[in-house]
Specification:
This protein has about 150 residues and is an alpha+beta fold. It has a domain of about 100 residues: Lysozyme, CATH 1.10.530.10. Helices cover about 45% and strands about 15% of the residues. The protein contains 5 helices and 2 strands. The longest helix has 19 residues. About 30% of the residues are buried.
Length: about 150
């Protein structure tokens, strides 16, 4: 899927979720794009690569992935949450951030770029360049226009 088509499909639901969750729509779309490769790698409609830990009671899918462990990209197989639709993934992602206390600092930010930096600081991803990758996507695709 082309980035413009992906963005078009997610804009309305991301903006609706932004109103209720206070997660900038630009961040929702950038994370979905980055984590799923613009939907090309979203098994189980999981746009955000959210793993299925012991608290997850829904469907799962096992996938090969990489984790940065002690500075080294290491291949692992992990269980990921699975959904029936992209909307289910978007809603669960928002809920995941809202109910997990470690992400509380994200919601004290006032713009998308700072939200991205807080996501990384709070440990959303093991990538040391996660925030910058999100910011680059937001900038390249003018996604902050969706935040208003």
């Amino acid at each position: 899927m082309l980035p413009k088509d992906f963005i078009a499909q997610l804009t309305i639901p991301a903006q609706a979720l932004s109103k209720t969750s206070k997660i900038p729509a630009s961040v929702i779309i950038a994370q979905a794009a980055l984590e799923s490769g613009w939907s090309l790698n979203a098994p189980g409609f999981n746009l955000f690569g959210i793993k299925a830990n012991k608290s997850w009671v829904g469907a799962t899918v096992m996938e090969h992935t990489h984790e940065v462990i002690n500075g080294v990209s290491t291949p692992v197989v992990a269980a990921f949450r699975a959904y029936k639709t992209w909307l289910g993934s978007l809603q669960d992602h928002a809920n995941f951030l809202l109910v997990n206390p470690r992400y509380k600092p994200c919601f004290a930010t006032t713009n998308a770029m700072d939200f991205c930096k807080q996501l990384q600081a709070c440990g959303y991803s093991t990538s040391p360049t996660y925030a910058q990758m999100l910011i680059t996507l937001i900038t390249q695709h003018s996604l902050t226009a969706l935040d208003h």
